[in-house]
Amino acid sequence: PIEFVKAEGSYLIDSERKTFLDFSSGIGVTNLGFHPQVQQALIQQAERIWHSPNLYLSSLQEQVAQELAGSYDYLAFFCNSGAEANEAAIKLARKATGKQGII
């Protein structure tokens, strides 16, 4: 068993001060690593609002969607989990192709 007690950049440090490269990315939660810029952005956001579900308008989410789509004729769809993302991908593929089968 390993207990991580600190993180720096892409590394985790355990209770015995051993350093490990973080390949798990916190199961997708810390995929940007443990950097001061990310920490500061999280603190700034938490001071405004901790969480708002996708049910409501979010100007920041709209800005991110625009950056993702760029000048292309694309749309962005934000999901809360991998399961939701897979479900959306299946539904969008069915709508786009008119086919119901999945391989």
Outline of the structure:
The chain has 103 residues and is α+β, with helices and mostly antiparallel strands. It is built from three helices and three strands, in the order βββααα.
Walkthrough of the structure:
It is a single chain. With 103 residues, the protein is an alpha+beta fold. It is 39% helix and 12% strand. It contains three helices and three strands, in the order βββααα. It has helices at residues 36-48, 59-69, 82-97, and strands at 4-8, 11-14, 19-21. It has a three-stranded antiparallel β-sheet with strand order 1-2-3, with no helix packed on it.
Number of strands: 3
Query: How much of the polypeptide forms β-strand, as a percent range?
Result: 5-15%
Q: Roughly what percent helix?
A: 25-40%
Low-confidence runs: none
The termini sit apart by 39 Å
Q: Give the overall silhouette.
A: extended
**Element order: H for helix, E for strand:** EEEHHH
Task: Give the spatial strand order of the biggest sheet.
Answer: 1-2-3
Mean pLDDT: 89
Give the helix tally.
Answer: 3
Instruction: Report the structural category.
Output: alpha+beta
- Main β-sheet description: 3 strands, antiparallel
Query: What's the Cα radius of gyration?
Result: 19 Å
Task: Summarize this structure as a short list of keywords or feature phrases.
3 strands; 12% strand; alpha+beta; 103 residues
